[in-house]
């Protein structure tokens, strides 16, 4: 079940690794290259989670 949550819907062989804050969307590396090049706030999911954690705990 966890694998399904981590897989890209478009590129089914790719894992979701990035978060586009501009679109509030989880993305795989291929999606970032194809659809989020112009976005200004794309980061690794782990980095985005750290920022959220710091923001809510301070």
Automatic annotation (TrEMBL):
Signal peptide: none annotated. Residues 3-47 form the B box-type domain. InterPro entries: Znf_B-box (IPR000315). GO terms for molecular function: zinc ion binding. Keywords: Metal-binding, Zinc, Zinc-finger. The keyword Glycoprotein does not apply. This is B box-type domain-containing protein. It comes from Dreissena polymorpha (Zebra mussel).
């Amino acid at each position: 079940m966890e694998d399904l949550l981590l897989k890209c819907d478009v590129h089914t062989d790719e894992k979701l690794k990035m978060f586009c804050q501009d679109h509030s969307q989880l993305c795989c590396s291929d999606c970032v290259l194809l659809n989020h090049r112009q976005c200004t706030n794309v980061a690794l999911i782990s980095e985005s989670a750290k920022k959220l954690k710091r923001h809510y705990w301070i």
